[in-house]
Design brief:
Blueprint lengths: L1 E3 L3 H9 L8 E3 L17 E2 L3 H4 L4 E4 L5 H11 L5 E5 L17 E2 L4 E4 L2 E4 L9
C-alpha cells in the first residue's frame, strides 16, 4: 500500500496508527517534499513515477480536498491501476457516487494509541476507561 499526500493530516495519521506498518511509501506532487522521509514513520516521500518502480495494490488518498483530482490522476497515469481508497469524515461528500468504480472509504478502521488507550480514528465515541 502507498499513501498519497504528505500533508500534516497524512503524516499525523501515519505516525499515530498501525497504518504505517502497511505503507511502503508516500506519494506527493510537491517537488520540495520528494526525496525526503516522513517524520516518525520514516517513509520515503516520492513522485507518482515511483509507482512504476515499486507498484502497490492500493493507494490511500489522505488529502480530502483533492480526492477527486488525485483519484483521476491515479486512474489515468498508473498502470496497473491500483485500488483507490479515500480517507474522509462521515459528513463529507460520498465519493462512491462520483466514481463509476466502487471507491472504498476508510472511516475509523485504524486505531491510535493515545495514553495507552485504544481509540478508533474518526470515532465520535470516547473510551471512558
Amino acid at each position: 500500500m502507498a499513501v498519497w499526500g504528505a500533508s500534516h493530516q497524512g503524516l499525523t495519521l501515519l505516525s499515530t496508527t498501525a497504518l504505517q506498518e502497511e505503507v511502503a511509501y508516500i506519494i506527493d506532487s510537491a517537488p520540495f517534499k520528494q526525496g525526503k522521509y516522513s517524520p516518525a514513520s520514516h517513509l520515503p516521500i516520492v513522485d507518482k513515477s515511483h509507482f512504476q518502480k515499486e507498484p502497490v495494490e492500493e493507494i490511500l488518498i489522505v488529502a480530502p480536498g483533492y480526492t477527486e483530482e488525485i483519484a483521476g490522476i491515479i486512474r489515468r497515469d498508473l498502470r496497473p491501476c491500483p485500488r483507490v481508497l479515500a480517507l474522509r469524515e462521515r459528513r463529507s461528500r460520498n465519493y462512491r457516487l462520483f466514481f463509476q468504480e466502487d471507491l472504498p472509504l476508510i472511516n475509523g478502521s485504524y486505531r491510535i494509541n493515545a495514553d495507552k488507550k485504544q481509540r478508533a480514528v474518526g470515532s465520535s465515541k470516547r473510551n471512558s476507561k
